[in-house]
Amino acid sequence: MRVRKYLRGSGRVLAFVFVASVIWLLFDMAALRMSLSDVSGQQLKERLIREREFYKRQSVEGLHPRRSFTHPVNRADPPGGQKAPRRPSSELDQVYRHKGEQQGQRSEEKEPRFIQVSRSNRSKDVDVKPGNGAAHPNEIAPEQDSAAKKEAVNLNVNTVGADGFQVPQKVAVKTPPAVQKAVDKIDPEANEKVEDSKIGKEAIQPEATKSRPAQTTRGRPNQDVKEVNKKVAEIQVKVTDKNQLNADKEPLKPAVNHLAVGNSSANAVVRKSSVHTVLSLDVTNSPRDPKAVGQFGQAARVSNHENLEVEKRWNEGHFNVYLSDKIPLDRAIPDTRPQKCSQSLVHDDLPSTSVIFCFVDEVWSTLLRSVHSVLNRSPPHLLKEIILVDDFSTKDYLKKKLDDYMSQFPKVRIIRLKERQGLIRARLAGAAEAKGDVLTFLDSHVECNVGWLEPLLERIYLDRKKVPCPVIEVISDRDMSYMLVDNFQRGIFRWPLVFGWSPVPEDYIKKNNMKVTDPIKCPVMAGGLFSIEKKYFYELGSYDSGLDVWGGENMEISFKIWMCGGEIEIIPCSRVGHIFRGQNPYKFPKDRQKTVERNLARVAEVWLDEYKDLFYGHGYTHLLNKKVIDIGNLTEQIELRKRLKCQSFKWYLDNVYPDMNAPLVKADGLVYNRGLRKCLALQQDSLSFETCDLSKQSQHFNYTWMRNIRHRELCIAPHVQSNSLALQPCDNAKSELRWLHKSTVSNLFFHKMLVVLQVFSRMCLEGQLEGPAVRLRSCDAKNLFQKWQFTHYYAQ
Ligand code: UDP
Ligand code: MN
């Protein structure tokens, strides 16, 4: 009745309004929840994927550190949470070849800051495995994809017209006057000059006219040679920017792209000389077969019945060898440089370079494609020679057949090592033979992109202590497609000296007003691809020749360069594709893991100072046991560091890699015992408990990376027989001084015990009310006297 009363007259209206508002509110809340769960679901998903990737890398690569545990093909969202803008496929088409005016019209600002890795063209039929560095196939909508494909096929690099490509220059190489001038300037000695100008005019002709490897869809390498040798093709030089021919007439723009990043000024040499627009030489066959497998760096398709063959040949190189053999040795690849690169200026009198490829049992087609990409896309007057160092390969085709093939190219020399030396000593052998001013090291499964060389040499020209690296792009190991990588990526390391890629911090980009074309200061180089002035390389003591086979040499040279006065840079206008492989395809004379660990330990001992504890403390304490591993003699390396008056590793961390987290200890401060409610103190060489007082040095302990409980030079050592504790001079190599500071039951830091591993059981450090301050007892998670807490924790 009462309810009825309320529902009469105006009450009824009010009730209706009330009920309606409640319903409305409920709907609203439901909608809000849905959208929230959408957002958080999406975020969660992204985070999970990121984390999964991270842990996958950590677990695999942590155990087997590679020179490149990952590559920046995965889209890197810029710090701050915005998503990386996606490159529309129309833009992707444009990057096949820059298009003169059209290119110029596109402003730098439009350049996506973080270019997502984008397959230049993607085939849906190809099995692109996510997590293998390849972008997910769904990233480009199917219709966009097919549009891109259509466009790509129409892209004939030798035709002119709407797509903006230049008419092929039938007149072989027309050396731009500015460059010719430069060639004349390079060598003061007259006879050298003759040789060089010969290079400028003729070098391409004999090489290219003799036999330019044709685009071929043939599979087997030996067939390749026959076919290739039959073809005598005209040389064509594609000059993507007409202005290049008139480069010296151009008004001098103020130091375009001579952007100094970092502490370059100290080493800079100011020279006055004329400049020209970077050359975009790309010598190609005519007509290129636009339909050839993998042409334009597109993903190549393999039909189902070929899969068996793909699998069978996979281990020859740990990538799709079957497919690689089908792809033309001189295929076109997309010009992936940021837009402004093709207009940047470089000096006319750049130094020349020797390109050094080391290889052991490299796949024929990838080795040749690497060499051809250098011959085809390097200004001849700057390419002194190509040195192939055969690190005692076992494959037959790398012997006489390779000699015969390369005999067509006067600039290519082959050095054969009499026994397996490993990558490091093979490079040293190549360097010792090199005649160029600059050494350019490349892996033997790369494709140098258009305009790759001059921007590297320019940096060395500006400052001989700069060590420039190209942006390493990704040639898919599965479908051999050429993929773009994110901008603003630099090489870094994580503990224990594991190489990786990471975006330049956003605030650094802002503070330095960095553009996509600017050189990027790079704490650690990936290792495979870089240029270094030859004399400077030797001044630095080259590589530590005690490093074996593979691994760690990129850390060594990186620390050495930075700490001894040089700089490593990634040059966004220089781009080289590289096949990242899941495994080393060659054999290690000794155990792989031991070899890499030993190399890293050498690097840590010479360069890391007190920070070497972080290296050993991240899973490498076993290397401290001299009985387990002999890392060899380091006297020479340590002497070198002294002689060069190199900076400390702390300096390196502070100045080169300030965002690196490198606490020298895991925890420190007071050591509080939960049961006693007092702190551990060390006085007159014995342990006691005192009322906690941070100002007392006697109460300060470190929990080190070696997991020692350390007070100055003394460490707490368990005495096994008597279950008592003693103090001993600390010794990183002694495993009996290591304590696990372990959380029990809950993760609350209060519930941490100090556990030591005894012969048969785990024993815990326990505080005592009477008698000696501490003793060892069987671990008991409920015992408060076994719970310890340091004041500060820096790492888990
Ligand atoms: N290499 C060599 N001798 C060796 C190991 C490697 O000459 O003992 C060559 C190898 O053929 C390649 C280069 O060194 O051209 C770099 O090796 P890899 O590509 O395996 O290194 P990653 O790119 O995986 O770091
Ligand atoms: Mn490689």
Automatic annotation (TrEMBL):
User: Locate the Ricin B lectin domain: which residues?
Assistant: 668-791
Tell me the superkingdom of the source: Eukaryota
Q: Which GO terms describe its biological process?
A: protein O-linked glycosylation
Q: What is its main location?
A: Golgi
The family database entries (CDD domains) matched by this protein are listed as: pp-GalNAc-T
- Chain intervals with Basic and acidic residues compositional bias: 88-113, 187-201
Presence of keyword Transferase? yes
Q: Which GO terms describe its cellular component?
A: Golgi membrane
Query: Which Pfam families does the record associate with it?
Result: Glycos_transf_2, Ricin_B_lectin
Compartment(s) where it occurs, according to its Swiss-Prot or TrEMBL record? Golgi apparatus membrane
Q: Give membrane topology per the record.
A: Single-pass type II membrane protein
Name by which UniProt lists this protein:
Polypeptide N-acetylgalactosaminyltransferase
What's the source species for this entry?
A: Salarias fasciatus
Q: Which gene holds the coding sequence for this protein?
A: galnt5
